[in-house]
């Protein structure tokens, strides 16, 4: 199996129609390595806190 074919099989869940990697809209601008696919629904992200959610009290 060629290297590019193996890469494509591993990243198939992240590849869009044009064959490029595509991330979830919440993960697109995030600097953390825990990016999720655009096909997945983000249930919980430890690094994301929306402005509408309740602020965490420290």
Structure description:
The chain has 1 helix and no strands. It is elongated, with a radius of gyration of 15 Å. The mean pLDDT is about 80. It has one helix at about 5-10. It has one domain (about 1-45). It is about 15% helix and about 0% strand. It is low in regular secondary structure and about 60 residues long. The termini are far apart.
What is the secondary structure topology, with strand pairs?
Layout: H1 3-10
Summarize the structure.
With 58 residues, the chain is mostly loops. The protein has one helix at 3-10. The chain has one domain (1-46).
Choose one word for the global shape. elongated
Which runs of at least 5 residues are low in confidence (pLDDT < 50)?
none
The number of distinct structural domains comes to 1
Structural class: little secondary structure
Number of helices: 1
Number of strands: 0
Provide the residue-averaged pLDDT.
79
Helix content: 10-25%
Secondary-structure element sequence?
A: H
Q: State Rg.
A: 15 Å
Main beta sheet: none
Distance between the termini: 52 Å
Content of β-strand: under 5%
Pick out its properties.
elongated; 58 residues; 1 helix
């Amino acid at each position: 199996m060629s290297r590019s074919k193996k890469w494509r099989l591993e990243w198939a869940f992240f590849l869009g129609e044009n064959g490029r990697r595509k991330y979830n809209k919440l993960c697109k601008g995030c600097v953390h390595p825990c990016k999720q696919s655009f096909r997945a629904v983000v249930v919980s992200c430890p690094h994301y806190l929306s402005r509408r959610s309740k602020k965490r009290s420290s």
